[in-house]
Design brief:
The complex is a heterodimer. By secondary structure, chain A is mainly beta. In chain A, about 0% of the residues lie in helices and about 40% in strands. Chain A has no helices and 7 strands. In chain A, strand 3 and strand 4 form a beta hairpin. The radius of gyration of chain A is 11 Å and the shape is globular. The termini of chain A are close together. Chain B is of the alpha+beta class. Chain B contains 15 helices and 20 strands. In chain B, helix 4 runs antiparallel to helix 5. The radius of gyration of chain B is 22 Å and the shape is globular. The chains are: A mainly beta, B alpha+beta. Chains A and B meet through loops of A and strand 16 of B.
Chain lengths: ~80, ~450
């Protein structure tokens, strides 16, 4: 079973800090405790999604700028 | 006068779409409601004669996409387009595109929107019409030296504002010459990135100020004012509580600012509903023009309550070519009105958004509640958090406050976390009851206030 990070709130998921910047975490990249993996915009408020358990080979389940439901997995990793 | 046989396309969502629908139906118009894929179940869609899907939930791909909105309105055979507030309501290109497609835009011309949307051009138009502005730069400042020439005359602190900004965005405060030298280049770069225009201007910073705004309505040749609203209670430059009339203006001050606002409206041949926003400095009895909003505003109901005028119906009639139906001499202030913005935010948890599912609703019968809610509705997370506006109207301010406290004690919106507890606390706060809150009050008060959980 891969590890996952789930959306704490519903909204729009962003993988980049701004449209013209690279993603917080590249596909296949490593993630460490405290890293930001993305932002969820909920009612015009941006919530940072932080890593609580690190790992490798990040595989994003939700594409940049796509809607997510609360509890939906955003990324899988090993 | 009826507009039967015509149709209106509502290019907006939420509570304002419901409000525009009511006005349109009262005028005999057929209503076509735009919506995103996330808004299929919204109240305004259920109340409309027809609905038009604009596309994906993200506003940039639906409500903000000019081509999609125009195409949907044309496909539905709409005669006119109402932009509401926010989204494309102050977009000159959109207003021009609506007219170019052979439809009526409910609002001023694209040229007027562009002129008043440019803060420097608006300030120049205000000065030309004799509208009071804050001491500051005459036009755009290009360099730090230009800025120093201004601060030599008006002193510190000053606000550095982006010409293309607005609604509190693109503002920095310089307290010293060092601040000025550091912040001007920063502000230029930021404004260029955020608004595509790095132009800046300076204004003297007013520290003890009230937010006072004048409602105007024009038909392109003649304009009237419908008195002022006070919106000093703000959090992060967003209004949360609005009143009409203001608690601090003398009759003379009111007459002065309202007459000046009509002069500006007539000078720019203003058509439709508009608002001139001012800072009012009680210690100097002075007004400073901030900006003009060329659309209907969220807080328009308090003006409707004290004047008895349906502003949304009037702006639609004017857009369809009818002359202004209002005479200045017949407009008077009756009583006092207060509006509380009920947002899907938890005031006990730093106003965290809460897009929940609406449970049982109980709305007191003797108040006005302009809302997008119905029982069982799942609030989408993609748009702003405004759920509705609780509006009371009393014979005087004390009675309005009493009615507000009573309504806040009775209203129930189960299943949600909202800003209602904030208003229960504010309505019992001495500074608010005494009308002493300035624009800095609410944020300072929130640092120590205890707001019970919803």
């Amino acid at each position: 079973m891969p590890k996952t990070i789930q959306a704490p709130v519903p909204g729009t998921f962003y993988r980049k800090p701004s449209p013209d910047q690279p993603p917080f975490i590249p596909d296949g990249g490593a993630i460490a405790v405290g890293d930001t993996i993305g932002l969820i915009e909920v009612m015009k408020t941006f919530i940072e999604i932080k890593v609580e358990e690190g790992g490798a080979n990040a595989r994003f389940v939700v594409e940049d700028e796509n809607p997510v439901l609360a509890g939906a997995p955003l990324v899988e990793f090993d | 006068m009826t507009l039967e046989g015509n149709s209106l396309f509502i290019a907006n969502r939420g509570e304002i779409a419901v409000r525009v629908n009511k006005a349109a139906k009262a005028l005999g118009l057929k209503v076509i409601q735009a919506h995103s894929e996330a808004d299929v179940e919204m109240l305004a869609v259920k109340l409309a004669d027809e609905a038009a899907n604009l596309g994906p939930p993200a506003a940039a791909k639906s409500y903000l996409n000019i081509d999609k909105v125009i195409a949907a309105a044309q496909a539905a055979g709409a005669d006119a387009v109402h932009p509401g507030y926010g989204f494309l309501s102050e977009n000159a290109q959109f207003a021009r595109a609506v007219e170019a497609a052979g439809m009526v835009f409910v609002g001023p011309s694209g040229d007027t929107i562009a002129r008043m949307g440019d803060k420097v051009a608006a300030r120049e138009a205000a000065i030309a019409a004799g509208v009071p502005v804050a001491p500051g730069s005459k036009g755009i400042i290009a360099t730090v030296d230009d800025a120093r020439d201004v601060t030599d005359k008006i002193g510190y602190p000053v606000m550095i504002k982006a010409s293309a900004g607005g609604g509190g965005r693109g503002i920095r405060v310089a307290e010293t010459d060092d601040d000025l030298a550091r912040l001007i280049p920063q502000a230029q770069a930021e404004a260029a990135a955020a608004f595509g225009d790095g132009s800046l201007y300076l204004e003297r910073m007013v520290t003890d100020a009230r937010h006072v705004e004048v409602q105007i309505m024009g038909d392109g040749t003649r304009a009237v004012h419908l008195f002022e609203r006070e919106c000093s209670l703000q959090r992060r430059r967003q209004k949360v509580w609005e009143e009409a009339p203001s608690t601090v203006l003398s009759d003379a001050a009111r007459a002065h600012v309202c007459a000046a606002s009509v002069r500006l409206a007539e000078a720019v041949n203003y058509k439709g509903a508009g608002t001139l926003e001012f800072l009012y400095e009680p210690s100097r009895d002075a007004f400073y023009f901030m900006e003009m909003n060329t659309r209907i505003q969220v807080e328009h109901p308090v003006t409707e309550m004290i004047t008895g005028v349906d502003l949304v119906q009037e702006m639609i009639r004017i857009a369809f070519g009818q002359p202004l139906s209002l005479d200045q001499s017949a407009l008077t202030i009756t009583g006092h009105a207060i509006e509380a913005r009920v947002n899907a935010e938890d005031p006990a948890n730093n106003f965290m958004p809460f897009p929940g599912v609406v449970g049982a609703m109980h709305i007191p019968e003797d108040v006005r509640f302009d809302t997008m809610l119905y029982e069982g509705y799942a609030i989408p997370p993609f748009y702003d958090s405004l759920l509705g506006k609780l509006i009371v109207h009393g014979a005087d301010r004390a009675e309005a406050l009493e009615l507000l406290r009573k309504a806040l004690g009775q209203i129930r919106l189960d299943g949600l976390k909202t800003t209602l507890p904030l208003f229960r606390a504010l309505a019992n706060e001495p500074a608010v009851i005494e009308g002493k809150a300035n624009t800095a009050f609410l944020e300072t008060w929130l640092e120590t206030a205890k707001i019970e959980a919803a």
